[in-house]
Amino acid sequence: MTPTDTTALVRLEGIEIAFDRRIVLRDVHCAVHPREILTLIGPNGAGKTTLVRVMLGLLRPRRGRVRRASGLRVGYVPQRLHIEPTLPLTVRDFLALGQRASRAACERALAEVGVGHLIASPVQHISGGEMQRVSLARALLREPDLLVLDEPGQGVDVVGQRELYRLIADLRNRRGCAVILVSHDLHLVMSATDRVICLNGHVCCAGEPHAVSNDPEYRRLFGPLADEVALYAHHHDHRHDVDGRIIEPERDG
């Protein structure tokens, strides 16, 4: 599929979701556009993961309509992934689960996310930061138009998260895909996104990060934290690996 800049990849209109008569999402309208990084934020229980599942067609809304671009390809990295510790599974095996993928394709995807050396490693022996990148590589094997990452920073320290969000932006730029991030790490994602939707059972506010950070609903939801992290930016003259360790620069001679 080759989306255009004027066509939404996914559009939700008046979505309502209820579990056991408890309304989780009410009257949600939103859209995901080509090449944008869209971040869903909100407190625990706000309905962020539920909204993503509706977008992906994994949940059917009680009311409303979901429109998806024809032929839309989605790469999905879930919030939690449990792998049986006794299962003899290498990274290569994990990438191929449920999909056909040649060794060469797996090597390319792993190299693109910076963990090409792990292809033969048992998944139980790699770190949290490495596993996030391996999961991202698996999603990239689908050649997605839309990349969806639910709490990608889980199990990764702050510095490692920063490097991961930088990688996600690079992937968007190289591949031209749209990205949906679900996160509560406001101090990182508010400076790593094009557009924000603040959710708490409904869309409280939406727009560019600066506009959302000044919206009264956003400030009411996050209180003093909103002032501390709204538009966090970090600049430094060195790099880190996937687990946050400083990579020493190569020296001549």
Fold blueprint:
Layout: E1 10-19, E2 22-32, E3 37-41, H1 48-55, E4 63-68, E5 74-77, H2 91-96, H3 103-112, H4 128-140, E6 146-150, H5 158-175, E7 178-182, H6 186-189, E8 195-199, E9 203-207, H7 209-213, H8 216-222, H9 224-229, E10 239-240, E11 246-247
Parallel strand pairs: 3-7, 3-8, 5-6, 6-7
Antiparallel strand pairs: 1-2, 1-4, 8-9, 10-11
Helix pairs in contact: 3-4
Q: Overview of this structure, please?
A:
The chain has helices at 48-55, 91-96, 103-112, 128-140, 158-175, 186-189, 209-213, 216-222, 224-229; strands spanning 10-19, 22-32, 37-41, 63-68, 74-77, 146-150, 178-182, 195-199, 203-207, 239-240, 246-247. Helices cover 30% and strands 24% of the residues. The chain folds into two domains: 1-73 and 147-167 and 180-235, P-loop containing nucleotide triphosphate hydrolases (Rossmann fold, 3-Layer(aba) Sandwich), CATH 3.40.50; 83-143, no CATH class. A hairpin with a 5-residue loop joins β10 and β11 (246-247). α3 (103-112) packs across α4. Residues 1-5 and 229-238 have low confidence and may be disordered. The protein has 253 residues and is an alpha/beta fold. It contains nine helices and eleven strands. Strands 5-6-7-3-8-9 form a six-stranded mixed sheet, with helices on both faces. Strands 2-1-4 form a three-stranded antiparallel sheet, with helices on one face. Strands 10-11 form a two-stranded antiparallel sheet.
